[in-house]
Each structure stands twice: as structure tokens, then as C-alpha cells.
Amino acid sequence: ETGVTQSPTHLIKTRGQQVTLRCSSQSGHNTVSWYQQALGQGPQFIFQYYREEENGRGNFPPRFSGLQFPNYSSELNVNALELDDSALYLCASSFDRWDNEQFFGPGTRLTVL
Amino acid sequence: AQRVTQPEKLLSVFKGAPVELKCNYSYSGSPELFWYVQYSRQRLQLLLRHISRESIKGFTADLNKGETSFHLKKPFAQEEDSAMYYCALTPTSGTYKYIFGTGTRLKVLA
């Protein structure tokens, strides 16, 4: 059984660009959540996907969007990047949307210049 | 406002001393509470959750609904407990979300 993986590890973009971050959930996990973690802060919940549908969303604007695929992979897309989007982006998978034990990936460090 | 507060950014204790990491929450329902831990160069992982009432690595946490607290305790700290600790909550009904605190770094000194 493999753990949660994320790609890329690091990414540098410029303001206004678009970015796609990828996550591969643990096998058998139907639920994936995405978080933004700014330096010195706790993870902030962006949204959760359960069986390819959004199941909950935090206080993030619509330019943050996601996709979940049947093969346990998912994407976080961010349009019109802003400097404040610079952060560590974490994905976490769980077996079921009501199973609140989450397994986190190592994160993608995004820098927006 | 829904919030998890961890008042201490850094807590330093000596090996063998008791540890208490504070967590207070503000939520207008019945949430589920968790402690997550991140050891150096490792990923965030679940330490314990209040519904399981377990002791993990010697740590326990009691949910006090009156004081809206979920403090993490260990009677005798070990050097390997040094890590970043995050308190978090999720609702048990309604729209799904996960709210983390800002974290407390625990340093256990030899």
C-alpha cells in the first residue's frame, strides 16, 4: 500500500499565471481534501472531494478549483495567481467522507513572484 | 466564528517533565476534535481523536465541552516528542470542513 504523493515538490510562478498541483491518494480512499499552509500557520481547508464531487469548501475564492478522478488522483487548480498564494499546498486522503482520519501528502511548495 | 486557538507558539520542557499543549475551540455545534503531529522532515499525521479515547505514545486529550478545550497531555516528556502539534476540529453534521489551529512547537530538552 502506497501513501499519498504530490507533484511537483516545488514550483515557481509569476503573478497572474495559472497552476495545477497534483495528488495521488492512498489506494481505496474515496475522499481527498486540499489545504493551504502559509509560513507559520496551520493548514487552511480549501475544499474536499468525495467520489469526484465537491463535498465542502473553505473560505477560498472560485479561482481555486479542483478535480478528482476515478483512479484516486486529484488536482488543485489556481487561476490568476496572487503573491499571497505563495504557500505549501497539502492534500490529504481518507477512506470515506465521514472518516475524519486523514493521511497527508508531503506537500507542494508554491512560490508566486 | 469557528476557530481553533493554540495560544503557545513554542513550548519548551525538560525530559521527564509533564507536558500540556493547550487547545481551545469556538464552534456552534458538536465538533469532532483531533491532534495532529508533524515530526522533523516528516509529513503531518494524526496523533489522536477525542472519540477514540485512546492514549497514543503516552499522550491523552480530554474534551471539555464546558470550557471548549481539548488540551493534549503527557505525564513524562521524551526527546522524541519534539515536534509541531496541531489541534483541529471538524463538524459532525452539515457542510464538511476541517479547521486547524496555528500549531505549537514542542521542544523537549535533554
* Number of beta-strand segments of chain B: 11
Indicate the mean pLDDT of chain B. 92
Q: Can you tell me the overall shape of chain B?
A: globular
Helix- and strand-based class of chain B? mainly beta
Count the strands of chain A? 11
Enumerate the spans of chain A where pLDDT stays under 50 for 5 or more consecutive residues: none
Largest sheet of chain A: 7 strands, mixed
Order of helical and strand elements of chain A: EEEEEEEEEEE
The number of distinct helices of chain A, counting runs of at least 4 residues, comes to 0
| Largest interface: pair, residues per side | A-B, 25 and 21 residues
Tell me the helix content of chain B. Answer: under 10%
Calculate the mean pLDDT score of chain A and round it.
93
SSE pattern of chain B: EEEEEEEEEEE
| Strand-residue proportion of chain B | over 45%
Q: Separation of termini of chain A?
A: 38 Å
Q: Overview of this structure, please?
A:
The complex is a heterodimer of chains A (113) and B (110). Chain A is mainly β. Chain A has no helices and 11 strands. Chain A has strands at residues 5-7, 10-13, 19-24, 31-37, 44-50, 53-57, 64-68, 73-78, 87-94, 103-104, 108-112. In chain A, the strands form 2 sheets. In chain A, strands 2, 4, 5, 6, 9, 10 and 11 form a 7-stranded mixed sheet that branches. Chain A has a 4-stranded antiparallel sheet with strand order 1-3-8-7, with no helix packed on it. Chain A is globular and about 35 Å long. The N and C termini of chain A lie far apart (38 Å). The model of chain A has no long low-confidence stretch (mean pLDDT 93). Chain B has 110 residues and is mainly beta. Helices cover 0% and strands 50% of the residues of chain B. Chain B has strands at residues 3-5, 10-14, 19-21, 24-26, 31-38, 45-49, 60-64, 69-74, 83-91, 99-100, 104-109. The A-B interface holds A 4, 33, 35, 40-45, 48, 55-58, 90, 92, 97, 100-107 and B 4, 6, 32, 34, 43-46, 49, 86, 88, 90, 95-103.
